[in-house]
Specification:
This protein has 224 residues and is mostly beta strands. Helices cover 2% and strands 46% of the residues. The protein is globular and about 50 Å long.
Length: 224
């Protein structure tokens, strides 16, 4: 494991001096000497000398059919045990403050091929889902699988939500081996608090009180 420690004094305009520590660890699970899974875990803690908003996450992109396979729309996506999704205001690109049932909508993600649903989502997925997990417990939040379901990554967290972003603005950047990552070339699953929680009283609070410790975990389980 390795650790990252950083301090942000009064930047960028937030109150207080925020000290953040992220411990990154990798472990494997084996059975009779054969590796059955690999886990990448981020333990994030923070303290501040004044009450301040905080919402830490991790934003990797995944394409389970291979980084150089083009679009990730053949990937299959599942969001686990959620109460609904957060509709977005098209002008502000922020949640409206509602939590809406996914029944009968393209947000009902249950081993769903992303390309079969995204055409009914103007602009593509860039939405948060309200997880039903009890506060403090690390539970499965979402899973993305290759089109043949042979390769999977599961996201586990104690965050109240998971944000699904379908790479709507990937800009043909070149990456590993010269591969080009265009629109929908990767899917991001960001475990986090609800966006705009600072302005919506009904959302879980994102305010870290003075003297209290912020503790969040995001774990990626790789299954092949």
């Amino acid at each position: 494991s390795s650790g990252i420690n950083a301090e942000w004094p009064l930047r960028p305009g937030y109150p207080g001096n925020l000290e953040v520590t992220v411990i990154v660890s990798i472990r494997t699970k084996s059975n009779r000497g054969k590796v059955k899974g690999t886990f990448l875990s981020l333990d994030m803690t923070a303290t501040c000398d004044q009450a301040t908003p905080i919402n830490l996450t991790f934003h990797p992109y995944f394409n389970m059919d291979g980084h150089d396979s083009g679009s990730a729309l053949d990937n299959k996506l599942t969001v686990f045990d959620y109460a609904g999704y957060l509709p977005m205001d098209p002008e502000t690109v922020l949640p409206t403050g509602e939590i809406v049932s996914t029944k009968g909508t393209p947000f009902n993600l249950d081993i769903s091929r992303i390309g079969d649903l995204i055409t009914d989502v103007p602009g593509g997925y860039d939405h948060s889902f309200h997880l039903c997990s009890k506060s403090g417990f690390v539970v499965p939040a979402a899973e993305i699988a290759s089109k043949d379901e042979q390769y999977r990554i599961r996201v586990l967290t104690n965050q109240p939500g998971v944000h699904v972003y379908s790479g709507n603005f990937l800009d043909e950047s070149k990456g590993k081996g010269g591969a080009v990552y265009g629109k929908h070339g990767g899917i991001a699953l960001e475990a986090q608090n609800f966006p705009n929680a600072v302005n919506v009283p009904a959302f879980p609070s994102c305010i870290l009180p003075e003297g209290e410790e912020y503790k969040r975990n995001i774990t990626f389980s790789f299954c092949f």
